[in-house]
Structure formats: C-alpha cells, structure tokens
Amino acid sequence: MTRIENYIGGQFSGAESGDTLPLIDPSINEEYGSIPASGDDDVERAVHAASRAFESWGGSTPTFRSGWLNRLADGIESRLEQFAEAESRDNGKPVSLARTVDIPRAIANFRFFAGAILHDSSDAYTDTPGALNYTLRHPLGVVGCISPWNLPLYLFSWKIAPALAAGNCVVGKPSEVTPLTAYLLAQTCDEIGFPEGVLNIVHGSGPSAGAAIVTHKDVRAISFTGGTATGRVIAKSAGEALKKVSLELGGKNPTIIFADANLDEAIDGAVRAGFSNQGQICLCGSRILIERSIYDEVRDRLVEAVSAIKVGDPLLEDTQMGAIVSEDHLNKIIHHLSIARSEGGVILCGGERVSLEGRCENGFFFSPTLIEGLEASCQTNQEEIFGPVATLLPFDDESKAIQLANSTPYGLAASVWTTNLETAHRVGHELQSGIVWVNCWMPRDLRTPFGGSKDSGMGREGGFHALRFFTESKNITIKTA
Ligand code: TXE
Prior knowledge:
By secondary structure, this protein is α/β, with parallel strands linked by helices.
C-alpha cells in the first residue's frame, strides 16, 4: 500500500489528526493506499513554513529561483517513467498519454517559467514632466495553488511554477482523487535539496484542506482549477478577504465545422477534441456544430472514427481511452446519458458502461459516445459532462453557428474548422471564448493567455499573465526637477 504524506517545511508527515482518505485505482477499482486527511492544523503548519521560507526566497534573485526550477524539472525528467505510471494509475489515463503529454508538459512548465522570470521586466515612464516613474513588482508572499484530478501534475505545476518563479512560497493542494504525482514531486524536491518551506504540499479533501488554504489569513492569493461550483465558493470566500483569485473552471466548448473545411483534418480534430483523456479536459470540444450541407457525411465519419477508439487497460500501449477517474464521476456521466435519452437524444454510438475482461474487469470504463437530435438549449447541451460524450448539432449559416457556439453559460475554448480565412477571423472575433483554435485543437504556446470568460472563470494563466497575477505592482515617483 502507498502511504502518501504531506510535505511541509521540507519534512514528510501525516495529518495532525492521524486521519486518512483512501486512494483508489479507477482502472481496477481497488484501494492501493491512503493520503492524509489534512485540515486547519496542517495548513497552519504549512503556511507558517512558507512564511518563514519567504524571508529568503522572496528576496532571492530571479537567477537563483530559475536555477531551482530547472533543477526540479531535471529531477522529474530523471524519473519520467515513474511519474507516468503513477499518473496513469491514479487517474486511469493511458500510460502512453501520461508519458508523452502530462509529464513532459509538467517538466516544460517548470522550464518555461524558469526562463520567463529571467526575461521579465517592469515599466518606467521617463517623460513625465519633472518626475520619473518606475514600477516594482513584488511577490505576494504565501500563495495557495489548488488543482483538479484530470491533468494532475500538469495543472499543479502550471500554477506552482509561476508562483515560485515570481518569488512566492506555495501551499499547494492536489486533488484528493489523484495525489500521487504531487507526492512524487515532493520526493523530488527532497532529493534535490529544494529550499525547505518554499513549496509545501498538503493533501486532503476540498472542503477541509482546500477551504483551510483559501480562508487562511496569511495566504495572499489563490490560483484554482476545478469545477465551476467550487470556483464560486472559493471566489466568495476570497472576495470576503480581498484576496487575489484566479479561477480556471469548466467548459462546454464548441467544435465548429464549416462545409469548406478540410474534412479529414476536421474529423480527426473533432475526435481528439472530444475524447482525449476520456473527455476529461476543460478544453474538450463536447458540442460538435456541423454545417447542414455536410452534416450527414461528417456524422457518419465521426461515428466510424469514435466507434474505433480502443477503450482498454491504461497500462497497455495500444489503449487509446482508459478509465474514468472515479466511480462517482462514472455515475455522473451515466446520469447525464439518462438525461440525454429523456431529452430525446439519439445515441449514435457508445452510451454504456464498458466491462473489460481480466485485470480491469471491475474498472470504471465508459464507451465513447456521440448523440444527435437534441435542442441546443437542453440540459445535455448546456451542462458540462466532463466525460467521453459529445453531441452533434447542425447549423445553416455562420451567424447561426456563432449563436449556437455562444449559447451556453461557459466561454472557455472553441475550435473552428474552415479553409476561408475571412470566416476564421470573423467567427474567431465573435466567439465568447478565452481561446479559439482555427483548424487545430490544443496546440499551446505557454506565453499566450489561458483562461475563460463567463462561467469558465476569471483571470488568465500563462506566461507574463501568470507572473503578473503572482506579483503586486508598486509605482515609485521621483521628483527630477
Ligand atoms: O472538482 P472540484 P470535482 C469540473 C467537471 C467535474 C466537476 C466537479 O465538470 O465534473 O468540475 O469535479 C478542491 N475549497 N471539473 O468535484 O471539487 C478539490 O479538493 C477549496 C473541471 O472533482 O472543483 C480539488 O483539489 N478547494 C475542471 C479541486 O478543488 C476545494 C477539472 C477541484 O475539485 C473545495 C476538474 C473548497 N470548498 C473538474 N472543494 C477543469 N476546469 O479542468 C473542492 N476543492
């Protein structure tokens, strides 16, 4: 059994209460370890350790911090296979995906911000009559980073790296559902002698450990990725204490296929957008909008491609879709399918729990699902399902496509498939979405702003946007004449 511990002030320990939560491998539905069920006392210790560490880390040079982030990246890279297997076991995702996307991306996050902090600069206004203005950017102090289960290390590092690069000390909490790679990260810090207390990792449930971080008076900012309902709770509590908050929440993203699109690429893109990581990515395209003149052809080709996705044991190299992250989440998806049926949806493929044979016979698998025949305004087309389920909707012209795309409470990402550059520009301009991809889905330049509008959150991560979030500006005016 794996016994995960908190990492506070450079030391490993259980929760003060001695309580634990179970760890379940979703591909076999077996308990394989435990995490500390941390609460106020543990968070208090972590914030104290972080505050002490901030006395030196907060005043260190960018070069010093950059060096440590690069060493952390090297440490993860040297154990890449161990991290990939842990991510796959914890989350149910194919190990091939963890090996090629999740862990390399986490390494890239540390390296990227190790570089970014060396290239940051601040403003100076030298032409104010009789005065010189320049702006300093100070780290905030202790900040909280709370991350979800779908891309565990990838999203944890996406927050921690800019926070540390900017000179803050972190109290981080990974999802209680997928804590294993955060624990390996703590072990890596320990191995490389990362300065004590600079990064503290506290495990436990959201309402207990998570809420204790959010409400702690000495935690100056919260960077959160997770569900919209949780985001609202955090925003309320952070607002009360006037804390900075960055929220990256859910999505109900449209994939828009125009009749002039390169259909081979569009269909391939729509399938990847809909079903990567079992459809459990906030950026997944879960509503596929298709111009009516090509609707039947695209539908048939999508059904063929989606039916061919190989659902299987995450540890097998040829598995394309692994397990759903937990039994609760599987039940949520099944519930959404019953809603879709009751709303009159036609299940074109999938729609059922999958039973595998052998090692994974008790695991939480669900078949990749396409549904048509639903109104855009129905629950299935409005609520985030966050599983391998996409709906198909026809549209007659560009304005209808835009209206359908914008018709949900969310506004995170969209992909547009067309060979007409003018269409791409016009539609891209009109979409209520933080991210628009044209003729592609998911390529990321880490310098670009990342985040959503409406119920998809507030604030932007990525590049200098994240470094701004994790610093406080101070302007100095000096009389010159
Ligand atoms: O996320 P939660 P859940 C969506 C997806 C999913 C739904 C709920 O639709 O079905 O959210 O998922 C911590 N104070 N996304 O319930 O609860 C929690 O411990 C502080 C979209 O699993 O939001 C975990 O570390 N922290 C998403 C983190 O918040 C709290 C990714 C996320 O968990 C807390 C995941 C509290 N009161 C789910 N309550 C995306 N945007 O990518 C929970 N947490």
